[in-house]
């Protein structure tokens, strides 16, 4: 028996990166998957989004584990589309037990800059709220809600050197902080129904978001077109351990734990998978 045998999991951002990793990991441990991804570019985001063929590959990898999958193109900014995805998944599988709100974008250096702010907030914050709200009417005792935050949400970044310079980049941190608060509050009230809700906070993760020129430029603003080789030394500043990033599977291992009954009394937590990054920012406190 797998660790989530017989469960059904909704995973957003499932076409590639951490979302694909979570979906395949959960399937390998016995879950059927409702896999959702936008599968098209967002104008203000400076790197390519997943494509329909990426979502098809995720579905193929899930089926290779022996589990079933319903894969759908939907934008998490569209709550009606998410409700439809949930309904179609439940029509196929009969129930919903796990929600993994993974979909997210990074809008650093995005133009027009205030549209970049809107697109990041709508995806990373409103998209999480939409995902949870679409799923909530169908969740029963024992269900688990998992949202992806970021170590960026936990950093002390109160100093602003150049106000208004990069709203799209700032929106990433703001949205991840706000979704963390949202999950904290909803976990308090879902607990009465024996439903859990937690946030996973990865540090730099080796995905297409990280491996992009806009991200390289955020670490090497002194260069017009920095490469991975230029930026990689700067990636180390995020972690206490001597690594530039974690792998998607490192986050997936935490997602699997939170989805499983092993964590049946774990709720309202901010679970860091950050190679000690948080330790560089804060002294010990309860």
From TrEMBL:
Q: Name one GO molecular function term.
A: oxidoreductase activity
User: One matching Pfam family, short form?
Assistant: adh_short_C2
Q: In the record, which residues are listed under signal peptide?
A: none
- Superkingdom of the organism of origin: Bacteria
Which keywords does this Swiss-Prot/TrEMBL entry list? NAD, Oxidoreductase
Note the CDD domains from the entry.
SDR_c
Q: Which SUPFAM superfamilies match?
A: NAD(P)-binding Rossmann-fold domains
| Recorded family membership | Belongs to the short-chain dehydrogenases/reductases (SDR) family.
Q: Which PANTHER family match?
A: DEHYDROGENASES, SHORT CHAIN, ESTRADIOL 17-BETA-DEHYDROGENASE 8-RELATED
Put simply, this protein is called: Mycofactocin-coupled SDR family oxidoreductase
């Amino acid at each position: 028996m797998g660790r989530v045998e017989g469960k059904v999991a909704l995973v957003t951002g499932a076409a590639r990166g951490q979302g694909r990793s979570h979906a395949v990991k959960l399937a390998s441990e016995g879950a059927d998957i409702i896999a959702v991804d936008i599968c098209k570019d967002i104008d203000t985001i400076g790197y390519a989004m997943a494509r329909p063929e990426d979502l098809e590959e995720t579905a193929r990898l899930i089926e290779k584990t022996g589990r079933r999958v319903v894969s759908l193109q939907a934008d998490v900014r569209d709550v009606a589309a998410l409700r439809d995805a949930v309904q179609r998944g439940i029509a196929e599988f009969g129930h919903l037990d796990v929600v993994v709100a993974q979909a997210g974008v990074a809008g650093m250096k995005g133009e027009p800059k205030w549209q970049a702010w809107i697109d990041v907030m709508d995806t990373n914050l409103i998209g999480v709220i939409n995902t949870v709200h679409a799923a909530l009417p169908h969740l029963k005792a024992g269900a688990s809600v998992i949202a992806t935050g970021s170590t960026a949400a936990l950093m002390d970044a109160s100093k602003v050197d150049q106000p208004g310079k990069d709203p799209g980049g700032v929106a990433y941190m703001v949205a991840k902080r706000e979704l963390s608060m949202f999950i904290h509050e909803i976990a308090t009230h879902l607990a009465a129904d024996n439903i859990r809700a937690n946030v996973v906070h990865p540090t730099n993760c080796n995905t297409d978001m990280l491996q992009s020129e806009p991200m390289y430029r955020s670490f090497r603003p002194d260069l017009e077109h920095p490469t991975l080789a230029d930026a990689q030394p700067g990636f180390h500043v995020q972690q206490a351990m001597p690594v530039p990033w974690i792998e998607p599977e490192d986050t997936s291992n935490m997602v699997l734990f939170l989805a499983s009954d092993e964590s049946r009394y774990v709720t309202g937590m901010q679970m860091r998978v950050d190679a000690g990054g948080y330790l560089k920012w804060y002294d010990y406190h309860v």
